[in-house]
Specification:
With 129 residues, this protein is of the alpha+beta class. The protein is built from three helices and eight strands; from the N terminus they run H-H-H-E-E-E-E-E-E-E-E.
Length: 129
């Protein structure tokens, strides 16, 4: 559902002229342009069955791992403490994992709804997708 929302948001962005046509022709997709490795963070607001969801995506290098939070150093220099919960899903190196598999120095992308704990954490070693 979140992936579909990204596609809609990116399609709307293309139709409103965001990104510029020259940059788009040099890239394969709007997702690659806006949500790729250069992204520091993004916010996507969806309305599902009348309920507003303010999804926050944070991406950066893992600088601290604790039982209730993950700290990221984002590309723009900002540091974000991402709250975690027992229901947070972890994907490390493309495979299902646990918080214990996330290490400092990894690159991570987190997805959370507002100030709620992260729903998903996707991490990998630098230089690997």
């Amino acid at each position: 559902m979140i992936a579909a929302a990204f596609g809609v948001a990116l399609t709307v962005g293309a139709s409103t002229g965001l990104g510029g046509s020259t940059e788009l022709t040099a890239r394969r997709s709007l997702g690659e342009l806006y949500l790729g490795p250069q992204m520091a963070r993004a916010e996507i607001v969806l309305v599902r069955k009348g309920v507003v969801h303010d999804f926050r995506l944070d991406q950066g290098r893992v600088v601290a791992v604790g039982p209730g939070a993950l700290e990221l150093a984002e590309r723009d220099g900002a540091r974000q403490a991402i709250p975690l919960s027992p229901s947070t899903t972890f994907i490390v190196g493309g495979a299902r994992a646990t918080l214990a598999d996330v290490a400092t120095g990894m690159v991570a992308l987190t997805v959370r709804d507002g100030d709620q704990p992260a729903q998903r954490v996707r991490a990998h070693l630098p230089g690997r997708p």
